[in-house]
Write a structure and sequence with these properties.
Layout lengths: L6 E5 L4 H12 L3 E5 L3 H12 L5 E4 L13 H12 L4 E4 L15 H29 L2 E6 L2 H4 L7 H20 L5 E8 L16 H5 L4 H13 L8 E4 L5 H10 L14
Parallel strand pairs: 1-2, 1-4, 2-3, 4-5, 5-6, 6-7
């Protein structure tokens, strides 16, 4: 590997935001490794990268919930480092949710599964790349979080909101503890994006509603921007939403004064 090569590892890169980020980083000249559980989708992203100008995309299946062994993050990172050199940018975009989002219908197993993918998996990924970033004196970590981590979102569910809020804390600890090694992290909080996770909602948005949302390519452009900034620049947190932001719509509706009841016949003048 040539000195100064930019190696980006996009975890959760087989579809949605991760795929958008991978394609954007490849177009800007990075060597990109996309990881996730579904090999066919990863290969589709890699093929799309081959058809675009810029860097290249390599598919590497991984299970973020696996603590160790073949297919785990640590084993995947060893392969990346051996074949491409140290990771200079980590984008953690793996995420899931459950349709059972209320205390009346969720379970500890649902909660644990969402936290393991969204939060503990992120910690595992960060833990694997830090030694190489420290040795190189440079590294960027982008944790793809959610509006639900920046503002309370009642319908996101306890597990999802807890896990995504936790990513903000991981970001802060990195920026506090690893800054002297040239490592910086961004807590990226998108509003609604047209991705597969919408299918986990109790009520799936209509095509018309999804057309107003952000696209994965929109977030990919943001990731590319963050990766292009000088190493002296740390964007601690970035919030991006569609103009039609339904969270604002709901908040606006809730803030309106209640309609006064019509006066009773006895009180009419």
């Amino acid at each position: 590997m040539a000195t100064g090569s930019r190696v980006a590892w996009v975890v959760g890169g087989g579809s949605g935001i991760g795929a958008g980020a991978a394609l954007a980083l490849a177009a800007s000249g990075h060597t990109v490794i996309v990881s996730g559980r579904r090999d066919a989708e990863l290969r589709d992203v890699a093929a799309a990268g081959d058809r675009s100008a810029g860097g290249r995309i390599i598919a590497l299946p991984v299970d973020v919930a696996a603590a160790d062994g073949p297919g785990a993050l640590a084993a995947a990172h060893e392969q990346i480092a051996a074949e491409h050199g140290p990771v200079t940018a980590l984008v953690y975009s793996a995420g899931t949710n459950t349709p059972q989002r209320y205390w009346a219908d969720t379970s500890p197993a649902d909660f644990a599964r969402v936290l393991d993918v969204n939060l503990t998996g992120a910690m595992r990924a960060i833990h694997t790349v830090l030694p190489g970033m420290r040795a190189g004196g440079n590294g960027l970590v982008i944790l793809v979080s959610s509006w639900a981590a920046w503002r309370f979102a009642p319908t996101a569910g306890a597990a999802y909101s807890t896990s995504k809020t936790g990513l903000g804390v991981l970001t802060e600890t990195l920026n506090v503890q690893e800054r002297d090694h040239g490592i910086r992290a961004t807590h990226l909080c998108p509003g609604e994006v047209r991705t597969e996770i919408l299918k986990t909602r109790p009520v799936v948005p209509t095509d018309a509603e999804q057309a107003l949302m952000l696209s994965p390519d929109d977030i990919g452009d943001v990731v590319r921007y963050l990766a292009a900034l000088p190493a002296r620049v740390c964007v601690n947190e970035l919030v991006i939403t569609p103009t039609s932001n339904t969270s604002y719509s709901a908040a606006h509706a809730a803030a309106q004064p209640a309609t006064e009841p019509a006066p009773s016949p006895a009180n009419r003048k």
